[in-house]
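ok trying this again, last paste got cut off
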Amino acid sequence: MEAENDTILTQFLLLGLSEDPEWQPVLFGLFLSMYLVTVLGNLLIILAVSCDSHLHTPMYFFLSNLSLADIGFISTTVPKMLVNIHTQSKDISYIQCLTQTYFFTTLVGVDNILLTIMAYDRFMAICHPLRYTVIMNPRLCVHLVLLSWLILSWVSLIHVLLVNRLTFSMGTEIPHFFCELAQLLKVATSDTFINNLFVYLATALLGVFPVTGILYSYSQIVSSFLRMSSMKTKSKAFSTCGSHLCVVSLFCGTGLGVYLTSALTHSSQASSVASVMYTVVTPMLNPFIYSLRNRDVKGALGRLLSRASSGP
């Protein structure tokens, strides 16, 4: 491919989940429905936490931030796919692609860090209840959330700047429904050694360490749980951890499934379908998990909906 063609690249082609015309209306309706359910569900969680004084605690503060990140997470990928299906187009501009990569990388990382912070919060609440309110004070909670956004924003910016120095052929096709970083590196025509090196480093720091932190927190929680003699105390401790543990399992499980699918199969379509699980399904299910398994959230949502239905 001539060098001139590499320097004037203005757009990529997103192949999407299926090129079959008969499937396009089905995919449009399905993903539009999932997108609306996800946004509505997470907005309800944010409103419930904001409006109900019973939920003004560190755990629910982190939950509302997780819901906010999930709204941004799914809004980064699905709307563009819906537009492309509706207009029967595969185009995404170079700038749009890099922007999508930046926000997707930031938000998936923020989700991961927030889940780790929430595990630490549960560890402190169950294993060190007398010091909990002193340690997990509002100032620390705000700083932890801001720090997670700041760190991931800079890491994602470095990723995008490294991608920006790569060259791509004209008419480059991305076998995915959004501009995922790994897919961009696969279709680049220049050397991606530095990019891959930074990906491995970032994954080690922002992937392995948080998972280790979650496992450590829950090992201490389980140890404390086994020492409890009262069934009522055990039930209360389990109820505060059950929802978070389900969300962590879903997030990590689907993410691991995408990684294994990419590593074990060369089918780009199989990898794209697997990606739907953690980019669309997981953000959609999180509000249901917290509202159905958590009595406090369920009660707050009930009060919020009753106030809305009764009017002023």
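PB: full thing came through this time. Residues 119 and 244 are 8 Å apart (CA to CA).
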